[in-house]
Amino acid sequence: MRLAAALSSLALIAGCDTMSAPADARKAFNQRAALIAKAWEASAAATTIRKGLTLLSIQTWRPYVDAPLDPIDENIRQTILAGRFVLHIPKQAPPEPGTVTFADGGTMTVPLVTVYDAYKQLLVPTPTCFPHEPHCVMLTITGARLTTRHLLTGRGEADVPVWRFTVAGLAKTVDQVAVAPAALTPVPPEVLGLTDPLASPRSARAGPAPDDRGPEFTGGDSLQAAAGTSLTFRTFSTEACSTVSGPLVYEDARTVVLGATVKRAPPGTSCALSLTVTRYSVTLAAPIGDRVVLDVVKGSPLFVRESLW
């Protein structure tokens, strides 16, 4: 396997500024990431996810909301966010089963939902307008077609069937995953951080002595984008006097593990609570392909959450 050969001698693969992370933090991260990768490969969850279809990307793509910088009238943006859509297309027969194509060339045949069932997933519980909402509008869906979208799954990258809706007055379409929910394999709850497979705290000590607050590392919170060799991920910090810097990336033939360096204040320092979101863009040594992307602390797969900061 060429990917395995390319990565067999690598422990830590750097993004554009990964090497700014102190050497002791990189070493501690590297050791932890290798354990995480090994624990994941041996887990029942990995076996379960590899046999099914686990979507780690969002399942609804709303223009001007998930990409909030796109120019649009604010009333229209709020209408999309509120899920105020009306379906106005001819009745269609239930679709034939669709095909998911994975990065390694494997395929999976999956049942698909109807146009109407996909449309219902776009709606909020009460999508209609009320008398006290003078600027409320409804958006009309005028067309729908089956296509695919490149997504991240528990088996790496894949092209997944989606319903693509054309909306009157919008230059961009709305996409909804077309795979029937019953055909999706959820990530087991114990893998989502409810338990830590290696019983580690939220961050790992990398400093040489208790009275020397050396650099530590923390885990990734979520992915913003993931395709090919490009990854953008986020970390959260709640301490105003902590500094998060230097993304950390570990790769082997089956996994990618993400984290970042954190420098905390000396013991006894009073630190106010302050949520800080830091984003990092890194370039992998090889495409994600059929690999899973894991958090270095929880040991769980990271989800793509495009609309979060």
Short description:
The chain is α+β, with helices and mostly antiparallel strands and 309 residues long.
Would you mind describing this structure in some detail?
With 309 residues, the chain is of the alpha+beta class. It folds into 2 domains: 2-49 and 188-295, no CATH class; 54-183, Lipocalin. The chain contains 5 helices and 15 strands. The chain has helices spanning 2-7, 23-42, 44-51, 74-82, 115-120; strands at 60-61, 85-87, 98-102, 107-110, 139-153, 156-167, 174-177, 203-204, 216-219, 222-227, 230-239, 243-251, 255-263, 273-283, 292-295. Strands 1, 2, 3, 4, 5, 6 and 7 form a 7-stranded mixed β-sheet that branches. It is globular, with a radius of gyration of 22 Å. The two termini are 38 Å apart.
Measured distance between first and last alpha carbons: 38 Å
The number of helical runs is: 5
Taken from the alpha-carbon principal axes, the silhouette is globular
In terms of per-residue confidence, which ranges show pLDDT below 50 for 5 or more consecutive residues? Answer: 1-19, 193-214
Largest sheet: 7 strands, mixed
Order of helices and strands: HHHEHEEEHEEEEEEEEEEE
Count of beta strands: 15
CA radius of gyration is: 22 Å
The percent range for helix content is 10-25%
Report the average pLDDT across residues: 79
Judged by helices, strands and strand pairing, the structural class is: alpha+beta
Strand percentage lies at 25-35%
When the domains are counted, the total is 2
Oligomer: single chain
